[in-house]
Description:
One of its GO terms (molecular function) is oxidoreductase activity, acting on the CH-CH group of donors. Mg(2+) binds at residues 74, 93. Condenses 4-methyl-5-(beta-hydroxyethyl)thiazole monophosphate (THZ-P) and 2-methyl-4-amino-5-hydroxymethyl pyrimidine pyrophosphate (HMP-PP) to form thiamine monophosphate (TMP). By secondary structure, the protein is α/β, with parallel strands linked by helices. Helix content is 44%, strand content 16%. The protein has a single domain (4-229), classed as Aldolase class I (TIM Barrel, Alpha-Beta Barrel). The protein has helices at residues 22-34, 49-66, 76-82, 96-103, 117-125, 152-155, 172-181, 190-193, 198-215, 219-229, and strands at residues 9-13, 39-42, 69-73, 86-89, 108-112, 130-134, 163-166, 185-188. Strand 4 (86-89), helix 4 and strand 5 form a beta-alpha-beta unit. The radius of gyration is 17 Å and the shape is globular.
Amino acid sequence: xxxxxxxxxxxxxxxxxxxxxxxxxxxxxxxxxxxxxxxxxxxxxxxxxxxxxxxxxxxxxxxxxxxxxxxxxxxxxxxxxxxxxxxxxxxxxxxxxxxxxxxxxxxxxxxxxxxxxxxxxxxxxxxxxxxxxxxxxxxxxxxxxxxxxxxxxxxxxxxxxxxxxxxxxxxxxxxxxxxxxxxxxxxxxxxxxxxxxxxxxxxxxxxxxxxxxxxxxxxxxxxxxxxxxx
Length: 230
Ligand SMILES: Cc1ncc(COP(=O)(O)OP(=O)(O)O)c(N)n1
Ligand SMILES: Cc1nc(C(=O)O)sc1CCOP(=O)(O)O
Ligand SMILES: [Mg+2]
């Protein structure tokens, strides 16, 4: 499977307030990985360079064992030095084409598009590999993030890129709602890493998404799918 094809599923994002040291970070991430993550984003806006490099390299190794893509938030130098699979860049995080020049063609680049189809179209032209829209619900992790309507996922579908929903997706029911609206990936901090059991949290997200998608199928197809599962 190419890295692009893997951009579908659950996308966990770390938070230094919830996971303040290496032990807590690696234990919580490994727990989430056991339930199956498509992507993990390392996001720590305050870490000094040596802490960031140590933690990002540790996560790269851990994610590699579980077949999960590691994405670095904001910092292209750290993405390169840690051997991560990708970088996430917001609208204030520099020019996408420069990041592509520096990181090369194989590194995944994600772009924040808030609630804007125009930003999404620009990101596609500039070579983004996925587009992120948020915040989908009020978020305690980033209360200042501008809100999006879930209709943006339908509006952006024609761009043909993986679409990520982010912001306040802190329950399985919300994950299922955003997925049903057309998101390829569900990104979450609190819903996974503020939980005592990240593995169980990710498992419940998967389960809710599966149930919702199954319920959206015609009844005869539902019965057929269930008889194959059990
Ligand atoms: C998957 C994903 N989507 C959006 C963001 C937000 O990025 P940005 O707007 O640059 O804000 P910060 O995360 O840097 O505060 C993200 N990190 N990940
Ligand atoms: C980092 C970030 N960016 C957002 C955006 O909308 O661009 S919302 C957000 C925080 C996501 O954390 P939680 O799942 O705990 O709400
Ligand atoms: Mg950013």
